[in-house]
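QA checklist item 7 of 12: single-chain prediction sanity check.
[x] sequence parsed
[x] length recorded as 158
[x] structure emitted
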Amino acid sequence: MEIQVRKATKSDMPSVLKLINELAVYEREPNAVQVTLEDLERDGFGEIPLFNCYVAETSTEIAGMALFYNRYSTWKGKTIHLEDLIVNKEYRGKGIGMKLYKQLMKFALEQDIQRVEWVVSDWNTPAVNFYESTGATIFSDWNTVQFDQESIKKFLNS
C-alpha cells in the first residue's frame, strides 16, 4: 500500500474532522468534539492560519493526520505543539503514524524549532510505547492544567 504524506488542504478537512471524531471515541470522549468543519476550514486556512496539518493519504482516502501549531517557550524559543496524531483504526500498524511523525519532526528541524511537545494519556499504552520507542521523553512530574470556557466565565465573574 502506497502512502503519501502531504500538507493538508482545505478540502481535506471533512476527513480530518472524521479522524478527530474517531479519536474522541477511542479516548472515551465520544461527545467531546465541539469543533466544526467550518471552524477547521476558517482556522486552518484563513488569513492567519492557527494550525498546520499533514495528512497521510492512500490512493483512495485520508488514513491519518498530524495537526500542530506554533508556541513559544520562554526557555527555548520557538516550539510546536502536536495537538493530535491520528491514524484511522483500519490502517494502524502499517507505519502510517511513523510517517506522519517523521514529517512533523522534519518540519520542526527545517523551521529551527527547539522543541516539539504534546500530551498523551497514561492509559494509552500503544501511544506511550510508540513515543518512547522513538526517544521521546514522557514527563510524569508535570500536570496538564486547563480552563474551559465556562470555568473562565465563572472565574472572571467571581
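[x] summary fact logged: DSSP finds five helices and five strands in the chain.
[ ] second reviewer sign-off
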